[in-house]
Amino acid sequence: MNQPSTSSTLSALPRLTLQETREKSLKRLHPWIFSKAVKHVSGNPANGQTVEVVSSKGEWLGYAAYSAESQIRARVWSFNPQEQIDAAFFQRRIARAWQLRTELFDLNQTNGLRVVAAESDGLPGVTIDKYDTILVCQLLSAGADSWRNEIVSALIALFPEHSIYERSDVDVRKKEGLKPVTGWLHLPREHGEVTIKEHGMTLLVDVMQGHKTGFYLDQRASRAAAKRYAKAKTVLNCFSYTGTFGVAALQGGALAVTNADLSELALSTALKNAELNQLDLTKIDNVKFDVFKLLRQYREQGKQFDMVILDPPKFAESKAQLMGACRGYKDINMVAMQIVKPGGLLLTFSCSGLMEDSLFQKIVADAAIDAKRDCLFIEKLSQDSDHPIASFYPEGSYLKGLVCKIY
């Protein structure tokens, strides 16, 4: 049986005891402990404080961050009884995560990367993205929030010349009893705009106003795929955001690109991205319109494209929303297929982590039946390798994509 360190500091930690038989997932190294799995908590831990976790029989299981208000009552930092949760712990974990990225990417070619991918990098609730010389951190759990200073210190030690901006403004913090937090933490700048390099593209990112931490780094490999498939094609880029799929398509030899999005700011950035990459602006049409309505309008007009890229926002935030999300994905994929020219391509995506790959593929298959189109799956796409998926944490796999040949 594992035993915790006998140091006075660690033995004084509050203790979380699990219900009988609820230790199985922890023994498989899954880091989440749900409230219903907790038998009792002793020591009156503060929100975010480190607790030691034991089974109903007293077997030591791990050190975790306590979340007093969340359904996920604790997130395990370490399953090693000899590993203290302190500043050095965060330095080690962040350094290990960064080492992996330097092995995976040529930083002279790609300098927009996810440095830390939360649970998948052993730091639950901690997301850190690097945009050239700006680091953006999102602290989404009570435990991550309580170690803010140590996390920032570790980043400064590893990236001394980088500015650090916090974007802890995500709704999930409410579930942790936390308020939104944004602002510069190190080497502040007047604005949040920065350019990054990606597969031969120069792309503008706004870390203060952009989606997520400023950009969709997880779609890097998918943008590269779009570039491969786009030659001599007319392309409709739905939910285009800042038009980066469109930039990739034009660099790949697309004849024309239509970027469709409801955000005027995003479309103005799309134009800037086109200019940054010295693209032929006569080949680009930026359309401010509701994509759901636009697709139907194109269908009614008989307008078709050689390639449609469909990267909608997340439709399901909870299991209760999954059924409705399935209907939404099916409907929008059906209409998208109907405006693809016979022999053309649909690149379709879901970023809903609750939707498994097999379910998404079934939805697209059902959409093809309703659209009365033949559909061949010719490639599967996923988040790029700076968003790794830990073997013990399948929830880390959330982005799925399909390249579909439509007849």
TrEMBL record:
Annotated compartments: Cytoplasm
Keywords noted in UniProt: Cytoplasm, Methyltransferase, RNA-binding, rRNA processing, S-adenosyl-L-methionine, Transferase
Record GO biological process: methylation; rRNA processing
Record GO terms (molecular function): methyltransferase activity; RNA binding
Superkingdom of the source species: Bacteria
GO cellular component: a single term: cytoplasm
Main location: cytoplasm
InterPro entries, alphabetized: PUA, PUA-like_sf, PUA_sf, RlmI-like_PUA, SAM-dep_methyl-trfase, SAM-dependent_MTases_sf
SMART domains: PUA
CDD domains: AdoMet_MTases, PUA_RlmI, RlmI_M_like
Residue span(s) of domain PUA: 14-99
Claim: Membrane is one of the keywords in the record: no
PROSITE patterns membership: PUA (PS50890)
Presence of the UniProt keyword Methyltransferase in the record: yes
UniProt similarity note: Belongs to the methyltransferase superfamily. RlmI family.
Protein name per UniProt: Class I SAM-dependent methyltransferase
